[in-house]
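cache lookup: miss for this entity combination. No prior model stored, computing from scratch. Input as submitted by user K.M.:
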Amino acid sequence: MATGRLVEVYLDLLSQPCRAVHILLTCTKIPFEWTLVLASLVCAGEHRTLDFTKLNPMQKVPVMVDDGFVLTESDAILKYLATKYDVPEHWYPRQPERRARVDEYTAWHHTNTRPHAAKVFILEVLLPAQSGSLVDEARLNRALSDLDDTLDKLESMFLRRQPFLCGDDITVADLLAACELTQPLGGGRDVLKERPQLQRWRSRVQSAVGEAFDKAHGVLYALRDRRRLKHFNRK
Amino acid sequence: MATGRLVEVYLDLLSQPCRAVHILLTCTKIPHRVRTMALRKGEHRTLDFTKLNPMQKVPVMVDDGFVLTESDAILKYLATKYDVPEHWYPRQPERRARVDEYTAWHHTNTRPMGFCDGSAPARLNRALSDLDDTLDKLESMFLRRQPFLCGDDITVADLLAACELTQPLGGGRDVLKERPQLQRWRSRVQSAVGEAFDKAHGVLYALRDRRRARL
């Protein structure tokens, strides 16, 4: 590892997986440099410009570049960073059974937490902002019901008898889940409002990562606050 | 590791991720026992199975009391815990990251293509229209200048992808028919795993043949 070398990451902090990467980097103090990429909500896809496409033909964020090694997919980035750099082992434990629990959650995350939480935000904030239309209440109710099901499973399975999703200590799995579940806050909705067990878990995550949590969420909170202001000004 | 202990796996070989696990176990000769499940008969909803896996999904692995779900996790755990050739899930961080990158991408890109088998008519159209895009990306990104999805040698990523792409065969559809580059990759995968490939696909081929016979 060359002295003074910085990991480069391209992040859109309105993107849930990007926030997870930002939090891990901040928490673990891995020297990094990040470029803010702004996605569709604010302006027309800056990450679709030519330079960015050359770097990442899939036009996704987050992207990591470490000494010329280009990596996409937040799962892979988080696990690579936790492996390659000198970080506390709890982030991605080495013991096979404990590691498998993290891999189990991150796989499940893709087809459960991620799509269901994202859908609520997309229907309540993104689509109306892009098209100027009203929220499709029927679709939103279905999305909220799917999310409820996911939250039930998080509580009854992953958080059954343990303080974090994969065991006694925080892992990259908790970062991915926590950042996904904050997304609907952008539309003023706290999906954990009626969920004391998950709220306690969220508090534990926030305690474990300290100010890194709010640092990563600044853009999302600002969006929420702007929307509140617009709402009040209309009255 | 207790002598003579067998890894137990609960598999329905009509399920793509189950076939990937089956192939790895067969190929690597990890001592194992397969408990066959038939999802179409609702066997995943029995009380006993639900106790084992409240998510009521397959595959499930039980290794000396350790219960694990999600094929990604199972494949990576087996490749880590047992004495298998390192290429399946390389240890070097950059090479390992490539496999993790593919398996993450797989969930939202390759996996939904399984619906091209027509098993869920409501999702068929969407699956078919996304199919070309996904196959394009597999060819132009993962297989660009390398024989396997994550490098020069076969990994668990290739097993997951190959088993997903065979699924539409059950409905009589070869999604790689017009794709020579992917066909060559598929042949390399089949060569690398030998008879384990057809062994895992027996049930699917039988389904295809029964359907053909009915036409």
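stored under new cache key. The two ends of chain A are 57 Å apart (CA to CA).
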